[in-house]
Write a structure and sequence with these properties.
Protein name: Abi-like protein
Strand content: under 5%
Order of helices and strands: HHHHHHHHHHH
Radius of gyration: 20 Å
Number of helices: 11
Helix content: 55-70%
Organism: Micromonospora viridifaciens
Number of domains: 1
């Protein structure tokens, strides 16, 4: 029963947030508690490779777009959709609220979400950006754009779940982990190897509580 969980957990983390763990543990409160804390630990471990994937994709796409349009603020010349233009404006506004004066290009680029960058590889940009330019950001990839976009978007959704402290214990996390490195390798094998050296996900996966 949920009453068997520590009162402080129920009070500060809330019964609705704890319920998925109780369900996964078949109402075994001790196991649910272990699963809750393990979910946090594995989420923290995933932050490293997912975060490096986000930054690497962002910078790889930014580099290609700068080269294509011969300007750091490439979005002024690129054939962007209204939704993307709106996100750039929001990023610029947010930077201005945080600092003084006009934000730099680097400030705006860093402020743009993973979703913004993943969207640049979507169907709407196939002919305008992917074919002439953005495929060069993934020199080790030879598949279809749609498949690359699907895999990147899956990682975006996983990142968002972790960012919102949602349960991820029910996922096939070993497959998620492999997918991250497949995507990193499309960018650079050296990048993938460097991130893997510091990655604690495999060790944490081995600690997963055994569910009934």
């Amino acid at each position: 029963m949920s009453d068997d969980l520590p009162e402080w957990m129920r009070r500060f983390f809330s019964d609705p947030r704890l319920e998925p763990y109780l369900q996964a543990a078949k109402r075994n409160a001790l196991l649910a508690e272990s699963l809750y804390w393990w979910n946090i630990k594995v989420s923290q471990a995933f932050y490293l490779p997912l975060g490096r994937l986000e930054v690497a994709v962002r910078n790889a796409l930014h580099d290609q777009l700068q080269a294509r349009y011969q300007r750091t603020d490439w979005w002024v010349a690129a054939p962007l959709r209204e939704s993307s233009i709106r996100l750039i404006q929001q990023a610029r506004d947010k930077c201005q609220r945080r600092g003084s004066g006009l934000p730099s290009t680097d400030d705006i680029v860093a402020q743009l979400s993973f979703g913004f960058w993943v969207a640049l590889i979507s169907t709407g940009y196939d002919r305008g950006l992917w074919v002439p330019t953005l495929h060069k950001a993934f020199p080790r990839y030879s598949g279809r754009r749609a498949e690359l976009h699907r895999n990147l978007d899956t990682m975006r959704l996983l990142r968002n779940r972790i960012g919102h402290q949602e349960p991820i214990h029910h996922r096939d996390l070993a497959t998620d982990h492999s997918k991250i490195y497949r995507l990193l390798n499309y960018l650079s094998p050296e990048l993938a190897a460097g991130v893997r050296l510091r990655d604690e996900v495999p060790a944490v996966l081995a600690e997963r509580p055994v569910l009934p």
